[in-house]
Automatic annotation (TrEMBL):
Cell location: Cell membrane; Endoplasmic reticulum membrane
Keywords: Cell membrane, Endoplasmic reticulum, Glycosyltransferase, Membrane, Transferase, Transmembrane, Transmembrane helix
Membrane topology according to the record: Multi-pass membrane protein
GO biological process: lipopolysaccharide biosynthetic process
One Pfam family it belongs to: Glyco_transf_22
Keyword NAD: no
Membrane-crossing segments per the record: 23-42, 141-166, 173-192, 198-215, 227-249
Protein name per UniProt: Glycosyltransferase RgtA/B/C/D-like domain-containing protein
Organism listed in the record: Candidatus Portnoybacteria bacterium RIFCSPLOWO2_02_FULL_39_11
Length: 257
C-alpha cells in the first residue's frame, strides 16, 4: 500500500480476465483491492486530513527525481530538504506535484533525458546491490561483487530469453512479458535506486530459466546468436552508465579500501 508500483500490474490481469471472459475473477480482484485500500485510505484521511490511497510522501519522488539539473536519482537538494522539514505531508504532496508539472512544462526535453538515464541506471550492471550500513571495506566490496555477478547473469540470460520469446513468437509468455514491462514504469518517471529492482528480479529469473531450458540438453552457448546479442546490449548499457558516472563509481570504490 505504501509502495503502489504493484498496481501497474492490475491492468494486465484485468485484460487477461477480459480476454478469457473470467468476469468473476475480475470482480474478485477489484473487490480485494478495494478491501485493502479503503481502510488504508481512510486511515490516512484521519491522520493527514485528506484521502491518500498510497504512501504519505509518495508524490515527493516526482519532485526530487525531476528538477532542472538533476540526475534522476533519489538525491534531494537543499530546497527539497528544507521544504520537507518545514511543511507537513499535505503540503509536500501538493507542492511536489506542482513542481513536477512545472518541470514538465518548462523542461520537457530534460524530463525525457532523465527518464532515459533512469532506464539506463535501472538496468546497469555497474549498479549492484550491497551498500548496506552494517558492512564496511573489503567485506562490503565482496558482497557487492557477488551481487554484480548475479546481476550480470540474470540480466543477460533474461534478455536472451525475452529476445527468444519475441523471435519465436511464443505467446505463452506474453502476459509475463507485459508484467515485466509494467513493473518498473513508475521508477522510470520518478527516481531510480538499485533496490527498486527487487520486484523485477523474480520475473527476470523466469525468462533466464526459459532461455536455459530452450537450449535443450546440449548447451551450444557459442552458437547462440541471441545470447551474444543480449551480452552486447547489457554491456553497452553498462558502459554508457560507466562513462556518464565514472566519478561517482570511483568515489564508491575508494571507500572500500
Amino acid at each position: 500500500m505504501a509502495r503502489p508500483p504493484a498496481l501497474f500490474l492490475v491492468p494486465v490481469f484485468l485484460y487477461h480476465f477480459w480476454r478469457a471472459k473470467r468476469w468473476r475473477s475480475a470482480v474478485l480482484l477489484v473487490v480485494v483491492l478495494l478491501a485493502i485500500f479503503i481502510p488504508w485510505t481512510w486511515r490516512n484521511w484521519q491522520v493527514y486530513g485528506e484521502p491518500m490511497p498510497f504512501g504519505a510522501a509518495g508524490n515527493f519522488n516526482f519532485w526530487i527525481g525531476n528538477y532542472h539539473g538533476g540526475n534522476g536519482e533519489q538525491s534531494p537538494t537543499e530546497e527539497h530538504i528544507q521544504f520537507a522539514a518545514k511543511y507537513g505531508v499535505r503540503e509536500i504532496n501538493s507542492e511536489s506535484l506542482r513542481q513536477f508539472k512545472i518541470f514538465l512544462r518548462d523542461y520537457p526535453a530534460e524530463f525525457l533525458k532523465l527518464t532515459l538515464l533512469r532506464v539506463n541506471k535501472y538496468f546497469s550492471i555497474f549498479r549492484p546491490m550491497g551498500f548496506w550500513f552494517y558492512l564496511r571495506g573489503p567485506g562490503q566490496f565482496l558482497f557487492i561483487l557477488s551481487s554484480a555477478v548475479t546481476s550480470v547473469l540474470v540480466f543477460i540470460l533474461a534478455l536472451a530469453g525475452i529476445l527468444k520469446i519475441v523471435a519465436t513468437r511464443d505467446k505463452r509468455l506474453y502476459y509475463l512479458l507485459a508484467l515485466t514491462v509494467m513493473t518498473p514504469l513508475i521508477v522510470f518517471i520518478t527516481v531510480v535506486e538499485t533496490r527498486y529492482r527487487f520486484p523485477i528480479y523474480p520475473l527476470l529469473a523466469i525468462f533466464a530459466a526459459y532461455f536455459i531450458v530452450s537450449l535443450g540438453s546440449r548447451f551450444k552457448w557459442r552458437s547462440e546468436k541471441l545470447l551474444w546479442l543480449a551480452v552486447a546490449l547489457i554491456f553497452l548499457n553498462g558502459a554508457v552508465d560507466l562513462f556518464l558516472n565514472i566519478g561517482l563509481i570511483k568515489e564508491r570504490l575508494n571507500g572500500f579500501f
